[in-house]
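Input chain follows. Return structure tokens only.
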Amino acid sequence: MKTFTPTPEDISREWYLVDATDLILGRLAAQVAHRLRGKHKPEFAPHMDNGDFIVVVNAEKIKVTGKKLADKKYYSYSGYVGGLKTTTLGDMLQNKPEEVIRAAVRGMLPKNRLGRALLKKLKIYAGSEHPHAAQQLKPLEIKTNA
């Protein structure tokens, strides 16, 4: 018996809507990355993009535990001497809440061109409005253990 390897014709993608209100950042990112990768499907292949599209709304309303709002830092380095800029999680949530979720999910995806392609299937919006109504989004329930 041969091992089944999916072809691009075998892949069916769904569109899911996730409401991030009062969800914990790491748990949300882990389950979104799992869906983007396609690991929930029986025809999963680690070298192929067979995951689903995910639309996350209310990104500004996520929660974090502990003192992460003040202690967690995001770094950006220009390459020049003295060009390191740091931003705390609290500041990022006020200015660019979409980037907080995108950075968390990016860290859980492969670090190659497959991971970059998977990240393009993630659509994040700070508020509850989004332009993807035509895709007939299915609600995705994120499991919380806490």
